[in-house]
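User: C-alpha cells for this one?
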Amino acid sequence: MSLHQSLASGGPATGRISDMHDVELAALSAAGGRREFGELVRRHQAGVRALLRRMGADPAAADDAAQDAFLTAFGKVAEFRGEGTFGAWLRRIAVRQYIRRAQQAAGRDRQLALLHDDEPGTPVASDPGVRMDLDAALLTLTPAERLCVTLSHGAGLSHPEIADALNVPLGTVKSHVKRGLDKLRARLEPPRQPAGRSVDVGA
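Assistant:
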C-alpha cells in the first residue's frame, strides 16, 4: 500500500477534501487529519518526485527520498504557517532528505558525490531552431550544474542555503548556477530571443 493510500484510509473526512486549499488541508493535518494529509500527498507527490529526478536521482532513489519527505512533513506539518506555498515547503524538505541520503552514501570523509564536476552532461541531438524540452536540456548540464540549478530554481533554496546543505563554498554554488542557467538559456530560448528570461525548473 502506498503512503497516500495508507493515509487516505485513516480518519473521517472533513468536508469535501478535494475542494480544500492546501493551507486548510495542512491545518487539518496538523490536528491529526490523516486523510487530509493523504490529499496533500496525492496533489504533490508527482512534483516532488520530478524535482528529485531533475536533481539527478534515479527512480528508486527519488521514490525513497519522496517517501521520507512525506513522512517527515506529516510529523512537522504544524510548522507550516502558510507563509509560502505548501508545495514549496514540501520540496525543501524533500531535497534535504535526498541530499542527506547522498551524503551518507558518499561517507563522512568524502564530498557529496553529486557535486563531482568532471562528468559531462548527456549529449542530446537537437535542431538549433527548435526549443528543447526542459528535462532534456537539464541532462546536458554537468551533475553539479544540474543539482545547483534545480536546488535554486526548483526547490527555491538561496545560494547560501545550497552551500550549507552541500557543504561546499558559496562561490562554487554561484558558479555552477550561473553556468547551468547560461547553458539552459542557450538550449531553451528560440534564436534571437533576448537573454534574461528566467528558467523555472520546479514545474
